[in-house]
Design goal:
Blueprint (H helix, E strand, L loop, with lengths): L8 H17 L7 E7 L5 E7 L2 E2 L5 E6 L3 H8 L2 E8 L4 E13 L2 H9 L2 H4 L30 E15 L6 E8 L2 E7 L2
Antiparallel strand pairs: 1-2, 1-5, 3-4, 4-7, 5-6, 6-7, 7-8, 8-9
Length: 191
């Protein structure tokens, strides 16, 4: 995706979400990995790289996680988050502010859980929660298939603002848009 300033605000945002939808299907797409920023319990910003998993028809973005992960506690306290995508070849940065919602043991989770391979399901079946110290002498994680989907959860991100920056030797371009009153209202801004 390149920013085409001749298009309408709504079309620019639509093109962005089409590109993100493609990224969710293509493991080699640069947008497949993204950075999610939340606020820790003590109000310190924190970031982590995650796999972008999908896009709902409402343009809500999906990220899978373990329900025991500290980031879920952070989201429960502060639902406003930011997600960053970067395409190194196109020199394209996408920043999205969103409202995060947690899905756990609901229909959304069940549908996505059933699409996962056995190996991918193991990421959510560890004996210890994410961030725990490995017991001394253990190199491998201990998985327990009996957990099933107990700890599998999904973070859905409802976008409220997009900030697209195209870096170029011919001149940088930037577009910022907010979702207000059911539509995207954007403007071209100085990078």
């Amino acid at each position: 995706m390149k920013i085409d300033f001749t298009k309408t605000d709504e079309t620019i945002v639509e093109d962005l979400f089409n590109d993100l939808e493609n990224a969710a299907k293509d493991p080699k797409h640069p947008f497949r990995l993204c950075v999610l920023a939340t606020t820790e319990v003590d109000n310190i910003p924190t970031q982590r790289t995650l796999v972008f998993r999908g896009l709902l028809p409402s343009n809500e973005m999906l990220i899978f996680t373990d329900y025991r992960s500290p980031k879920l506690q952070e989201i429960k306290l502060q639902k406003q988050v930011s997600i960053l995508f970067y395409h190194p070849e196109k020199k394209l940065q996408i920043r999205i502010q969103a409202i995060a919602n947690i899905h756990h043991q609901d229909t959304t989770c069940l549908v996505e859980w059933n699409k996962l391979s056995k190996v991918n399901k193991q990421d959510y079946q560890t004996e210890l929660p994410p961030g725990s110290d490995l017991p001394i002498g253990e190199e491998e994680l201990t998985h327990n298939a009996e957990f099933g989907s107990d700890f599998f959860s999904i973070i859905s991100l409802k976008p409220t603002k997009v900030d697209i920056l195209q870096v170029s030797r011919m001149g940088h371009k930037r577009f910022v848009s907010r979702f207000e009153n059911g539509m995207w209202n954007g403007r071209r801004v100085i990078p």
